[in-house]
# Entry
Amino acid sequence: AREWHLAARPRGWPVPADFALVEAPVRTPGPGEVLVRNTRLSVDPYMRGRMNDVKSYIPPFRLGEAMDGGAVGYVVASGDEGFAPGDAVLHGLGWREYATVPAKHAVKVPRIEGVPLSAYLGVLGMPGLTAYAGLLAVGALKEGDRVFVSGAAGAVGSIVGQIARLKGASLVVGSAGSAEKVARLTGEYGFDAAFNYKDGPVGEQLAKAAPEGIDLYFDNVGGEHLEAAISALGVHGRAVLCGAIAQYNDTSAAPGPRNLAMAIGKRLRLEGVLVGDHDALRPQFLAEVGGWLKDGKLRFEETVVDGFENTPQAFLDLLRGGNTGKMVVRLDG
Ligand code: NDP
# Structure
């Protein structure tokens, strides 16, 4: 079976030559292991950080070894009594066609009618929990809040905006990188206003969309977006720092928000979120978000790239905004 290895560490934007397609034997599961045929792979922005050889909250990919990441698939052989062939599972050994996974690192996932298994890579998985925990636990969203979310047409952002609306935000504004995405935000996801950040200065567009300012900013982007949000936040406003994708391919440190000192007078709270801290919320998250999905109150979208051989390209496209909703790779069969 095939797997993708990290062939080189990029400087700046990654390129296809940074990845190598390698044929490797499929290992029969030993006691406490399961063999999974992966059917959908996740590519995520955080993987860009793992291509660098730097210490972070998650270790770097190793050169010349298989990469990993979220994946779903079906058990084909089991050395663990908790799993049987045919079980649908979520696990962390993506970037390969077959994975021999320690059973304790595989999760059997319940199927919800009308919801594809791949939802566990998106709305019901890591990005969904990031949105839920970031907005509710860290951002402490309150009814009536005016909310701004960047990266709003992506996996995390599209869920943030919809949860804000479902929880009674009085204004939900989103930004994204194309006219089509912007139209989706207001037309399908129920955002009150949206703009294309490529059309003009973010600060000016945000001021038009939220003339009275905002109470809560969910940051997926960093840079100019964060600066604009700091200006738009009112007294005691909060910013949830979730991602800074505008900077992930920078080769030198980006300048901080020039207006950070505004945080003093406005008594702002800027707080980071890491999804890994919020496992305890998972049952509540699955129940509430799963309920909204069943009731048709929450929409989720996927951009599907076909073919295992296209996994690196799917990842590169994700970094440039080629996705709406969750970017996933569909494997044959
Ligand atoms: P998305 O589905 O949002 O995909 C990434 C999107 O980023 C692209 O579609 C693109 O959309 C946008 N983008 C790329 N470059 C820029 C730029 N220069 N300025 C503005 N937008 C840009 O990915 P996810 O939903 O998976 O992740 C969203 C963010 O959340 C990322 O920053 C990620 O690192 C972070 N994250 C953090 C977690 C945590 O625990 N803290 C967990 C999960 C994700 P567009 O066309 O709009 O430009």
